[in-house]
Amino acid sequence: MSLITRQGHVTVVTLNQPLRQEAVDEISSRIDDAMRDGIPNLVMDLSQTPLIDGAGLQWLDDLDMEAADRGGCVRLCNANELCIDILRMTGVGDRLDHYPSLPAAMASFVR
């Protein structure tokens, strides 16, 4: 099961499985609940995510648009090379900021 924690005004989601439809189904309602509490700033920690498929890409894109509509954003961190390539080749990586570590992603919210 993926871990969802709150660190200050940022919700951190640590995905521990491939980001496919099954993962989206598992965590969507939990993230929706977390996003209701204030500005929806999210960091998706992909350190334990070996792969992102089309459903996962669409969900990330939709999640970012929903967060932006409410004054927040989604940031990614710790993605492996395959996930980075998938994000870049599909263009989703052009719309979502990626950071090499969780502390770097968290720090980006205070700039």
Automatic annotation (TrEMBL):
Residues in STAS domain copies: 1-109
Sequence intervals crossing the membrane: none
InterPro entries in alphabetical order: STAS_dom, STAS_dom_sf
GO molecular function: anti-sigma factor antagonist activity
Residues in the signal sequence: none
UniProt cross-references to Gene3D superfamilies, sorted A to Z: STAS domain (3.30.750.24)
The protein's name: STAS domain protein
Organism this protein belongs to: Neorhodopirellula pilleata
